[in-house]
Design goal:
Elements: H1 3-7, E1 19-21, E2 25-28, E3 34-36, E4 44-45, H2 54-77, H3 80-83, H4 87-101, H5 109-113, E5 123-127, H6 133-142, E6 145-150, H7 153-166, E7 169-174, E8 186-191, H8 201-211, E9 212-220
Parallel strand pairs: 4-7, 5-6, 5-8, 6-7, 8-9
Antiparallel strand pairs: 1-2, 2-3
Helix pairs in contact: 4-6, 6-7
């Protein structure tokens, strides 16, 4: 898969129309909604017209700001060594982490419940990508193409850095309730420790069903 093919799956989360990309934004060719990139230059699909009212929009902005500060602090204090790994080291780290996670028993998706051989060249969406560690496992161990989605600019920044070292993927700032992804286009979705934070869990789950291909798989913890 090439990057252009993956880009074609990224759609307007409001009407699912085709996007026209510029240096500063993505513009929907159908409804004309403009989605400006975040300050790191990654696509950002958190826009007021997506939300039912101003209170809901202000809430997602506050959530994004809160977690953004949290990820900046953790990246500076806890994840520096991971973020500085080269491609070979990321692969080695993924193998090591899978082995360690496998010791935790049933309930650990990455350690025990995902058959990575089934992910080869598949397209996956990682909701709540954080530093990019989970995307790195899916790409390094499964040879998957990943669209990493997080509500914060900091997480999309680091996820992009990791993904770019491994292969074909994208990092996007977006809300799980409004996934900017073509319907029935994704082979699998992975999300761990994230969706229970959603203000509307049912809507987030419905979005996952919408983007999955028939017989697609969702790995949710």
């Amino acid at each position: 898969m090439d990057k252009d093919t993956l880009d074609q799956l990224i759609k307007c989360p409001k009407c699912f129309g085709t996007l026209i990309s510029t240096r500063e934004s993505n513009i929907c060719n159908d409804c004309n909604t403009v989605y400006y990139n975040n300050h790191n230059g990654q696509p950002k699909f958190i826009e007021e017209s997506l939300y039912d009212d101003n209170e809901d929009y202000e809430h997602i902005l506050s959530v994004s700001k809160y977690w953004d500060a949290g990820w900046r602090k953790r990246n500076e204090e806890e994840h520096v060594s991971f973020l500085n790994l080269n491609t070979k080291e990321i692969h080695d780290n993924a193998k090591k982490q899978k082995k360690e996670l496998g010791k935790s028993g049933v309930g650990n998706l990455l350690g025990n419940e995902i058959n990575f051989k089934t992910l080869d060249k598949k397209i996956g969406v990682n909701i709540g990508s954080g530093t990019g560690a989970e995307a790195s496992y899916l790409m390094a161990l499964g040879n998957a193409n990943i669209i990493a989605i997080d509500v914060t600019a900091e997480a999309t920044r680091t996820s992009k850095e990791i993904i770019d070292k491994l292969g074909i993927g994208r990092a996007i700032q977006a809300d799980a309730r409004h996934l900017p992804i073509e319907k029935s286009s994704i082979d699998f979705v992975y999300s761990s420790g994230v969706l229970h934070h959603s203000r509307n869990i049912e809507q987030s789950i419905n979005q996952i069903y919408r983007i999955l291909k028939p017989n697609g798989v969702a790995y949710i913890a």
